[in-house]
Every structure is written in structure tokens, then in C-alpha cells.
Amino acid sequence: MWAHRLVAPQRLEPIDVPVPREAALAPGEVLVAVAAGGICGSDLPFFRGGVSPDVGSDAREFGTPGFPMHEVAGAVVASRHPDVRVGDDVVGWAPRFDGLAELVVCDGDGLHTHDRRLPPRTAVMLQPLACVLYAMEQVRPVSGRTVAVIGQGPIGLLFTHVAKTAGAAHVVGVDRVDRSAVAATFGVDEPVRASSDLWAASLPAGERPDLVVEAVGHQTATLSHAVDAVAFGGEIFYFGVPDELVYPLPMRLMLRKNLTLRSGVTLERRRVLAQAEQYLREHPELAECYVRHVFPVDDAQSAYEHAVRPAAGQVKVVVAAT
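The chain above was modelled as a monomer; its predicted structure follows.
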């Protein structure tokens, strides 16, 4: 079967690898024929050649076929999960980050059977949307509040859309890249083109947001900027997988401002994937404005090169096999 693997930092190569054996599936596992995969910000440090300090025993590593990709949509070709059937069109997690391949073994609890009228290149967006919906369940209700999202990439824009849909009174999107062309579509009332430290330093006391979502990740500075920016008694949600085991935090400022800091991985994955599909039905305009760049699987190299260089007008980059 086809797959791609990293042979050097920022360099993929196509290879042929053996087909996973159905008999090797563990209870609860599902074999998926990948039709589309989304490139996530959490994949890009690996693409650059980095290694996470806590990848865990399930993760793959540099040089592994299919690595690095974990957002996948496709058809089930074998299943040992009681609720996932052969022939189902599914979307969800490739838990070992090895989804850049023709076939991938997934945990059935991390998959959702979606409406087959939804094409895979669109369905794959349900995975990041599910992550955002679950994160927003963890924070205090945002109705009537001011919400700021640091980072207006694919995840950050979903946070602004979900916050505005949930009734946020004012939504601020902060990014060094000009996102003004897509800001209104994603519910951003105030697009800010600036570094997060300069934005935080410029805020008058009466205009500080009640909730700040840190959606940049992959470095340590922006979390402190979120602490600087948020209002007294406010809340910060740190989203994503940290590249460092320890992050510096201005604890005295956290204390003096009576702040709440939250984070966490996405649990109840099948439930929130189904919720994401319902959200997309209610907001069908997201389908066109979110997935704007689709590359054929033979050109996966170009897809990752595109994703790793954020640009105005760029949102989600998808690799499609069909």
C-alpha cells in the first residue's frame, strides 16, 4: 500500500509498505482506508524534525510510514469494534499519528460514522471542530462575555466561530498574519494583526477579555501573554499539545488577578465528533471557508510545505486520496 514518511526535516518521500493484517487488529480497533487527512498544527513540529517529550507508547516517530498525520476520514475495511461496521464512512483520530497512508489502524472509540453525503475532504474537518467544541464545554459559559483567541490558524478560527455562536458579546482574534479576509466569516468582531505580547500590553484595563484561548502552542511565550491580557477573575484555556514538559508562568500575576487556567485532551471523542457533524449542519458555510486548500496525496510534500507557512487567506490544508 502507499504511504509517506519523513526522511529528513521537512522532507517526505512516498514508499510502499505491507498492508496491515485484519487478523492483527486488537479488540476495539478498526482498519480505515484513508480518503482524506487534515494537517494539524500538532503535526507540524514533527514535520520540521522535532520530537515531543511525551509522545507516549502509542506514538510513531521520525521515519515511520504515515507519520505525521492524525486527522483522518475514510471508509472502514475491517473492524473489531462493536459499533463500527465495515463500509462505514468515518472520521476521527489516527492515534499513532500515522494517518498519511492508504490504510491506518484506529481506535474505534475515536471514530464517528458520518453522513456519507459529506465528502471526506469536508468530513475531516469534524475532528478539529470536535476538539474545539469539547474545549469550550470545559470553560465557563461565554454568552455576553468578551473572548480573545491568540492564534488565528485553523484551530483558532474554529474557536472564534464557536465562541460567537455561543453568544460571546465581543470576539477578538490575534495573529501576526493578516486574517482580516476571513475574520467576519469566523465570528471575529475585532481582528488584531500583532504579536500577542504587544497586543496584551496595549489593552486598557476596561477592555481586557474575560476568556483568552491560547491557540498557538509550540513555544512557551504566548501563555504568559494570555495571563497579561485577561481580565481580573478571568479564564485562560491553553489548547494543544505542548512541545515542552515545563512552561514558565507568571504565578504572582495569576494570583493577583484571581485567574483560572484550564487545559486538557479531548475525551468522549465519538460524542463530540457527532456533535461536530451537527454543528456543521447548522453552519454549512463553514465547509467552504474552512477547507480551502486540497492537495492530492501524491503531492503531500507540497501540502505540508503550504501548511507550515501560514499566509493570509489560508485556513485548513487537506491531503486527499480521492
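Residues 269-282 form the longest helix (14 residues).
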